[in-house]
Amino acid sequence: MGVRILFLGPLRDIAGEPEREVPAPLDWAGLLAAVGPDIADQLREPRVHVACGSRVLGDKTRLDAREGDEVALLPPVSGG
């Protein structure tokens, strides 16, 4: 089953796919390696957030995704 990574908004365009399944467990270093350099560069930006299990992580570098978890990559939201 693994961990499902969801690419949202413009991150989906960069990834070229809406989601990707990777082996569990998944930590921050594993996430950066799994998504490739272009997405990893985006994830290092403070305005890009990571959610795991439907909860936005206050510190995305503390990601600890387990078997069956869903990790969503949340790009900055614009608007007013």
TrEMBL record:
UniProt cross-references to Pfam families, sorted A to Z: ThiS
InterPro entries given in the database record: Beta-grasp_dom_sf (IPR012675), Mopterin_synth/thiamin_S_b (IPR016155), ThiS/MoaD-like (IPR003749)
Domain of life: Bacteria
Protein's name in the database: MoaD/ThiS family protein
Source organism per UniProt: Qipengyuania mesophila
